[in-house]
Design goal:
Blueprint lengths: L3 H14 L4 H52 L3 E6 L4 E6 L12 H4 L22 E7 L4 E2 L8 E2 L2 E3 L7 E6 L10 E5 L11 E6 L6 E7 L10 E4 L14
Antiparallel strand pairs: 1-2, 1-7, 2-3, 4-8, 5-8, 6-7, 8-9, 9-10, 10-11
């Protein structure tokens, strides 16, 4: 005959192993909350940086594509900076009106929303008239520069329908840029959307080499002077770029 206590002991063991105690649930929930908070904080800090770098990469790619299109097609290719809508639009100017000094240049480059619709002067066949090469829309970042200065330097400006004149970068048919200049980007990672980090996409020389640089404060600059610097290592072997 089996003693009743044997069953009672077994039942107690089974009951205790079938679930969790309140203390165990509380510890697990607390650990999960801490991990989630750390993850959220990391993502919140990293996301603006990824947005800014991603926008810079897209612009560099579009500029390189525009230069290649100019060489392959033998026509000027224009990158038009829309400061109002934070967009960069590239098109091949088959009739050559994008070159300053050519007939109808200023009137031809008037800001026109229909340029955002792709091929805008069609009618003579594929790529027989001006056609779109690419479009970059900035997401969770914008054109900007440290101190709120103009985000565009050195590029040709033409009259537009907006309050500011329309800056353009022109790659000539031989791939040489019409101007050497730069375009600035700003994130929105600070308090109340304030810009904390800035990148600069620069046309570095007449070969059309495109370089991305980051703005560093004096205390982080290798020259102890605030400015834009390409990616690299400092004297201590650490990444030169500092994110704020």
């Amino acid at each position: 005959m089996v003693h009743p206590d044997r069953f009672r002991g077994t039942n107690r063991t089974w009951a205790r192993s079938a679930g969790y105690t309140v203390l165990e649930l509380l510890v697990t929930t607390t650990i999960s909350a801490v991990i989630g908070l750390l993850f959220y904080s990391s993502v919140r800090t990293l996301a603006p940086r990824l947005d800014l770098q991603g926008a810079a990469d897209e612009i560099v790619f579009l500029a390189a594509r525009a230069r290649l299109e100019a060489i392959q097609r033998g026509v000027p290719v224009v990158l038009q900076v829309d400061l109002e809508h934070d967009e960069l639009f590239a098109f091949a100017d088959v009739n050559g009106n994008s070159v300053p000094g050519s007939p109808g240049f200023e009137s031809y480059l008037r800001f026109d929303p229909k340029w955002k619709d792709g091929v805008y002067d069609a009618g003579l066949g594929h790529k027989q008239t001006d056609y779109e090469v690419g479009l970059v829309r900035l997401y969770r970042c914008s054109f900007g520069s440290p101190g709120g200065g103009p985000p565009v330097e050195g590029l040709t400006r033409v009259p537009g329908a907006t309050e500011d004149s329309t800056p353009v970068l022109v790659f000539l048919p031989d791939g040489v840029p019409r101007d050497l200049g730069s375009l600035g980007l700003a994130d929105h990672s600070g308090f109340d959307g304030e810009a904390m980090n800035h990148l600069e996409i620069a046309i570095a020389n007449i070969t059309g080499r495109i370089e991305t640089r980051k703005y560093l404060r004096p205390e982080d600059s290798p020259t102890a002077v605030a400015g834009f610097f390409p990616a690299g290592k400092n004297s201590a072997g650490e990444n030169l770029w500092v994110w704020y």
